[in-house]
Design a protein that fits this description.
This protein has one domain: Alpha-Beta Barrel (fumarase). Helix content is 24%, strand content 26%. The chain is built from 6 helices and 7 strands, in the order E-H-E-H-E-H-E-H-E-H-E-E-H. Strands 2-3-4-5-7 form a 5-stranded mixed beta barrel.
């Protein structure tokens, strides 16, 4: 059975250096939720030279808009959003110190280039497993843009959040290598 590597934000290049595509990780600590509407606002703040609602340095952003919580839970279903929707915003956040992103699906070359230059990883969460994933979120509070509803930025405390390294800090891409492994004649 493959070893599960522990990640505890805030992250550093040192904590990410040994992660390789396909590695299973378990995250414990604080992650932030943000989707495309929130990302647009974050980038606008950076471009105006204003402070962000949280310091992205060393942090992980989970691309999620959780459903309302049932009694006794921090959030409802919390499955990943398609990450390419954040691709036009992610490079600037990575440049500002963002070290991890969690979502589903492939990323653009611009995001991968920023990850290589500044040291960041992209983690895949399993789409369709939102109810299971939500059990690893033990606390959630809206910290910015409550008017966005499910897409507001949340500070979420997680324990044992499961993910897979989809793109490592060297730019190796599990989505790309996976396709190449199954090409006819490969």
């Amino acid at each position: 059975m493959a070893e599960i590597k522990e990640l505890r934000p805030p992250l550093s290049n040192e904590s990410l250096r040994d992660l390789k595509i396909g590695d299973k990780v378990s995250i414990t600590g604080v992650v932030y939720s943000a989707r495309d509407a929130a990302h647009k606002r974050l980038v606008e703040l950076i471009e105006r030279g204003e402070d962000l609602p949280f310091d992205v340095s060393g942090q992980i952003i989970y691309y999620v808009g959780p459903t309302p919580a049932k009694p006794g839970y921090a959030v409802g279903s919390a499955g990943p959003t398609t990450s390419s929707r954040m691709d036009s915003y992610a490079p600037l956040l990575i440049e500002k110190g963002l070290k991890g992103m969690i979502g589903k699906g492939p990323r653009s070359e611009g995001v991968k280039q920023a990850m290589r230059e500044h040291g960041a990883v992209y983690l895949a969460a399993v789409g369709g497993a939102g109810a299971m994933i939500s059990k690893s979120i033990v606390k959630s509070e809206v910290i910015a843009y409550p008017e966005l509803g499910a897409e507001a930025i949340r500070r979420m405390e997680v324990r044992g959040f499961p993910a897979i390294v989809a793109i490592d800090m060297l730019g190796n891409d599990l989505y790309q290598q996976g396709k190449e492994a199954y090409r006819v004649g490969a």
